[in-house]
């Protein structure tokens, strides 16, 4: 399990097809998804509402994601 604070989602609007990014903070206590299947099945992604910055459509497709690891103080 990696130590992460957020997941960067790469999203495509289903209306205008614009690509954009959305940072998704991981709620405290939740486990970080290790792959795409776990990400899609997770409750905090399932309930997400997207809003395209160009056309304001509220439906989109996650095309990629990156787990953003927490910075570690030395």
Could you characterize what this model shows?
There is one protein chain. With 74 residues, the protein is mainly beta. The protein has 2 helices and 3 strands. It has a 3-stranded antiparallel β-sheet with strand order 2-1-3, with no helix packed on it. A hairpin with a 5-residue loop joins strand 1 and strand 2. The radius of gyration is 13 Å and the shape is elongated.
Précis, in short:
The protein is mostly beta strands and 74 residues long.
- Low-pLDDT segments, ≥5 res: none
- Strand-and-helix sequence, N→C? EEHHE
| C-alpha termini separation | 20 Å
Strand content: 35-45%
Main pleated sheet: 3 strands, antiparallel
Rg, Cα atoms, Å: 13 Å
Q: Give the beta-strand count.
A: 3
Query: What overall form do the CA principal axes indicate?
Result: elongated
- Overall mean pLDDT stands at 79
Biggest sheet: strand arrangement: 2-1-3
Layout of SSEs?
Layout: E1 4-13, E2 19-25, H1 36-41, H2 43-46, E3 60-69
Antiparallel strand pairs: 1-2, 1-3
